[in-house]
Automatic annotation (TrEMBL):
The chain crosses the membrane at residues 20-38, 58-82, 91-109, 147-168, 174-196, 230-252, 272-294, 306-327, 333-353, 365-393, 405-424. Keywords: Membrane, Transmembrane, Transmembrane helix, Transport. It is a multi-pass membrane protein. Residues 25-429 form the Major facilitator superfamily (MFS) profile domain. It is found in: Cell membrane. This is Hexuronate transporter. GO terms for cellular component: plasma membrane.
């Protein structure tokens, strides 16, 4: 049997011995993502308070939402490149400490310009977190377990962005700046614990040898021209577009869904917080379920197209249709159900798509993950401003403005998921 194949199996054997270490890693990354999305979504849950304090209109609020993503994509690529060179643990630690500083700094926000500056800076330092964390996961977990582990990491975003909504809304009753400061303190605690208790990479000699062997073999076989070819392959391009369209929904959910639930659906602020939490819990369960199915299909069939592409693509198609149904069934209960299931079915893509990208160029997993996340986050620049424009354009008919934005988002996801199903076909040899 080929030696490289034997070597590739050793991380699996070692992972059983060090399962508690692996659980520790994924727990840290889960809570890191929870903090990440809680901090960025405080703005959405405090929308009415902030807009009232600073006298902002819908178009200005759209700019506040968009500002976070202005430099986010570039920061993601730069941060991931640094992590490939200096180590994922170091970069993750630096990022988290910077979040703490920025969140405490938010106490000094005194107007529209300062709010925009805060959002830009937060985007710069949160941009690299996702790709660097996924690259860290790739160091520790074998391929057939990365779908579930990545979904657990993704669930941190769902928990922080949606499930904790009542907690964040509750904190804002003491003032929206207080909510920022609380999560700033949590960021610093995470940083200290992560620095003290974790390692850069697997500690067993066998794992290090296997990792080194795999990387060296890959580097020998890859030229820069082949890396560029992989990035611009149909598999890469249409995976990027599905992530882009799905992320538009994520941003819409963070910036505009709270207002939709209060102004269109007619919920109170406290009811909105509970509703968003229900959306988060249901979507988290669905993301985990879809990822688990994908992993099981991969383990059983060794077929990447069936396990990663078909499972994810079909889920996204169904999710897009459920999202559109909100426009045609204006019932509060159905709205909450549809948002939750649609978010879960489309959000499963965020756990699976990075696996497709990173396996195209394994030795540059950080770079490939950052390209995916940076591209998808371009949607973050567009979605808030476009939605604000549509709502402003509707003038007195605010419901129509929200409905138009939902139909555009669902249509984009549907189109991209169909293209994903048609053209994405990971090369099985590159997945070995």
């Amino acid at each position: 049997m080929d030696k490289s194949l034997l070597m590739s199996k050793k991380p699996l054997e070692s992972s059983r011995k060090y399962s508690w270490v692996l659980w520790g890693i994924i727990t840290f990354l889960f809570f890191g993502n929870l903090i990440n999305f809680s901090e960025k979504n405080i703005v959405g849950y405090s929308a009415e308070l902030i807009m009232k304090d600073f006298g902002l209109n819908s178009s200005q609020w759209g700019l506040v939402g968009s500002a976070y993503y202005w430099i986010f994509p570039i920061a993601g690529i730069i941060g991931a490149a640094f992590s490939d060179r200096f180590g994922t643990k170091k970069i993750l630690s630096i990022l988290m400490l910077s979040w703490g500083v920025l969140q405490f700094g938010a106490l000094a926000i005194n107007g529209f310009s300062a709010l925009i500056l805060y959002r830009v800076l937060l985007g710069i330092f949160q941009g690299p977190f996702g790709p660097v964390a996924l690259s860290h996961i790739n160091k520790w977990f074998p391929a057939e377990k990365r779908g579930v582990t990545s979904s657990l990491f993704t669930l941190g975003a769902t928990t922080g962005g949606l499930v904790l909504a009542p907690v964040i809304v509750g904190l804002t009753t003491f003032g929206w700046k207080v909510a920022f400061a609380v999560f700033g303190g949590v960021s610093v605690i995470w940083f200290l614990l992560f620095m003290i208790t974790t390692k850069e990479s697997p500690s067993s000699i066998e794992q290090k040898a296997a990792t080194k062997n795999t990387v060296e073999n890959s580097i020998q076989k890859k030229s820069s021209k082949e890396v560029v070819k992989a990035i611009f392959s149909p598999t890469s391009i249409f995976t990027l577009f599905l992530a882009f369209s799905s992320f538009i929904f994520v941003v819409w959910t963070a910036i505009w869904m709270p207002n939709f639930l209060t102004k269109v659906t007619g919920l109170t602020s406290s009811q909105m917080g509970v509703a968003v939490s229900i959306v988060g819990i249901s979507s988290a369960a669905i993301i985990f379920l879809v990822s688990m199915v994908s992993d099981k299909v991969l383990a059983k069939t060794k077929n990447w197209r069936l396990s990663r592409v078909v499972v994810t693509g079909v889920s996204a198609v169904i999710g897009s249709m459920l999202l559109a149904s909100v426009v045609f069934i204006p019932n509060p209960i159905w709205n909450i159900i549809a948002f939750g299931v649609a978010y879960g079915l489309t959000g499963a893509n965020f756990a699976i798509a990075p696996q497709i990208m990173m396996t195209l160029v394994p030795e540059r997993s950080g770079l490939m993950a950052s390209i995916l996340m940076s591209f998808q986050n371009v949607g973050g620049m567009i979605a808030p401003v476009a939605t604000g424009f549509l709502i402003g354009l509707s003038k007195d008919n605010i419901i129509q403005g929200y409905n138009n934005s939902i139909l555009i988002v669902s249509g984009a996801i549907l189109l991209c998921s169909l293209l994903f199903l048609l053209f994405v076909n990971p090369n099985l040899k590159k997945q070995a």
